[in-house]
Structure formats: C-alpha cells, structure tokens
Amino acid sequence: MSATAMAKRLEGKTILITGASSGIGRSCAFEFARTAPRDLRLILTARRIDTLKEVAEQIRAEVGEGVKVLPVQLDVSDPKQVKGFVSRCLPEEWRDVDVLVNNAGLVKGVACAPDIAEEDINIMFQTNVTGLINMTQEILPIFKARPDGGAGDIINIGSIAGREPYAGGSIYCATKAAVRSFTDSLRKELVATRIRIMEIDPGQVETEFSVVRFYGDKAKADAVYAGCDPLTPDDIAEVVVFVAGRRQNVVVADTLIYPSHQAGAGVLHRRPT
Ligand SMILES: NC(=O)c1ccc[n+]([C@@H]2O[C@H](COP(=O)([O-])OP(=O)(O)OC[C@H]3O[C@@H](n4cnc5c(N)ncnc54)[C@H](OP(=O)(O)O)[C@@H]3O)[C@@H](O)[C@H]2O)c1
C-alpha cells in the first residue's frame, strides 16, 4: 500500500509526547503510529512508566516494527527532571526531536477563592504552565540548530478554559490562558524560522481528566458527562496529527474543537437523564 502525503511528511520523524500514559496524549501516540507506520520514532513520557510501557507494547502489536517507541518516565512539574532531559534520558539516536506535543496537564478540584488548596494551585501551575514552558525550552535548542533559522513543531494542548474562564475553575483557566499567551508570544518570537508553534484547544473530552479533578471519585467524574456526548481523545489526536502532517509552510496556529452539543465553556446541551 502506498503511503499518503501526510504519512510521507511524517516519516522519519521523532515525536515526543508528554502525558502519553492516558487520554489525549495516549491517543496521539496511537494516531501518529497509525498514520506513519513505516518509519517513526515515538518518545512517550509521563509519570506512570508502567502504563507507558503497556502503551508502547500495544502500539508495537498494532502497527509492527516500523514505529519505534521509547517510554521514558518524566514528571514535567519538576524542573530538575526537565532540564537536561534530552542528554540525560534519551539515547543518542532519539535526540533529534522533530515534534513536541506539550499535552501533560491536569485540573484539581472545583474550589473557589479563598478556599483553593495551595497544593492544588501549585500542581496546576507547575504542570500546565511551568512544565510546558520548561519542556519547550529543553527542546527548542534542537529545533534552532537546524538550517533556515530552525525547524520543528511545538503543539501545545490548551483548552476552551483558556479562552472562557468559568466559576470553579479559576486556577485551571488561568493556567490555560497562560499557555495561550506563551504560545502566541513564542510564535511571534520565532517568525523568522521554520519552527511551527501551534495550539489546539479542546472542549469537553472524556478521559481521566475529570477523575483527576475529583481526586479519584469516578461517580462525580461520570456526572460531568451525564446527558452529553463528549469528544473522545482520538478526536483530538486526529487534529494533532493533522497539524503536524501539513506541508512545512502551513501553520495551523490555533484550533478550537467542541462536540456538537457544546458552544462554550459552560454552554452544553444535556439530554434529560
Ligand atoms: N479532557 C478534557 O475535557 C480536556 C479539555 C481541554 C483540554 N484538556 C487538556 O488535555 C491535556 C490532556 O488531558 P486528558 O484529558 O488527556 O487527561 P488525562 O487522561 O488525565 O491525561 C493527562 C496526562 O497528563 C499526564 N500528566 C499529569 N501530570 C503530569 C506531570 N506532572 N508530568 C508528566 N505527565 C503528567 C498524565 O500522566 P501521569 O499521571 O502518568 O503522569 C496523563 O498521561 C491536558 O493538558 C488537559 O488540560 C483536556
């Protein structure tokens, strides 16, 4: 079977995904592998290394040996783990990263000020903002060393929450607004290069996201999606791979993705349940 134009553009690339143990990041790993199964390197990172190893095995079983998968433990909220990650944790032949998917992120709780736990504030900012910025700073020198001012893709996973703040999500919304500002600044700073800075903002997606938000309470998490048809993580992964698979001169800078019954952060049509 001949490869599609998108597969040809992705072939030979090394793709690093943060938060690849679950949800959108995990789906991105599968979608990249399915789209360019003949020649690809996938670096999968997250805190849960055992889960990453399972994902790696599942990808190998599905697409075969054309896709090489390297699971690596990495907590993006810890600057000491991120700084020097490439030279310390990646074997030589894995260091020439072409695409960084900054996906790792989380929300904790629905508390409103002045009752937001300091620990929750810190983990959200350290993961969603500082973690994403530190990862970007760790990978950008690789991109900038390439000809033509530099080349490579950074795909940041933002959120509708970064565009439309909502009650009970002030910290999470603030972190995603920060991602948006950082992303837009970076695109401007790198305008003289071939480095593409892209952001994808999902609406409601059913993943472990709400389970994490409610500290493991599955019943509360399920209630978030009651009467709704949320997006699946595969829906977002298809867009991630699409933007990475465009011709180099095409920058899909900014994308907002809803399920049909969503039209804003809190604007959801729910069927009676
Ligand atoms: N689900 C939604 O409705 C929705 C909507 C808009 C945007 N988003 C964004 O989409 C991204 C992915 O979320 P998801 O919905 O796929 O949720 P998920 O299923 O909970 O996945 C989150 C991933 O992030 C990883 N992660 C969390 N903290 C980390 C850390 N300190 N270091 C490294 N990895 C870390 C988790 O892995 P470990 O636990 O193994 O570290 C997991 O793989 C997030 O940035 C989220 O804000 C989600």
UniProtKB/TrEMBL annotation:
<dbReference type="GO" id="GO:0016616">
    <property type="term" value="F:oxidoreductase activity, acting on the CH-OH group of donors, NAD or NADP as acceptor"/>
</dbReference>
<keyword id="KW-0521">NADP</keyword>
<keyword id="KW-0560">Oxidoreductase</keyword>
<dbReference type="InterPro" id="IPR020904">
    <property type="entry name" value="Sc_DH/Rdtase_CS"/>
</dbReference>
<dbReference type="Pfam" id="PF00106">
    <property type="entry name" value="adh_short"/>
</dbReference>
<dbReference type="InterPro" id="IPR036291">
    <property type="entry name" value="NAD(P)-bd_dom_sf"/>
</dbReference>
<dbReference type="InterPro" id="IPR002347">
    <property type="entry name" value="SDR_fam"/>
</dbReference>
<comment type="similarity">
    <text>Belongs to the short-chain dehydrogenases/reductases (SDR) family.</text>
</comment>
<protein>
    <submittedName>
        <fullName>NAD(P)-binding protein</fullName>
    </submittedName>
</protein>
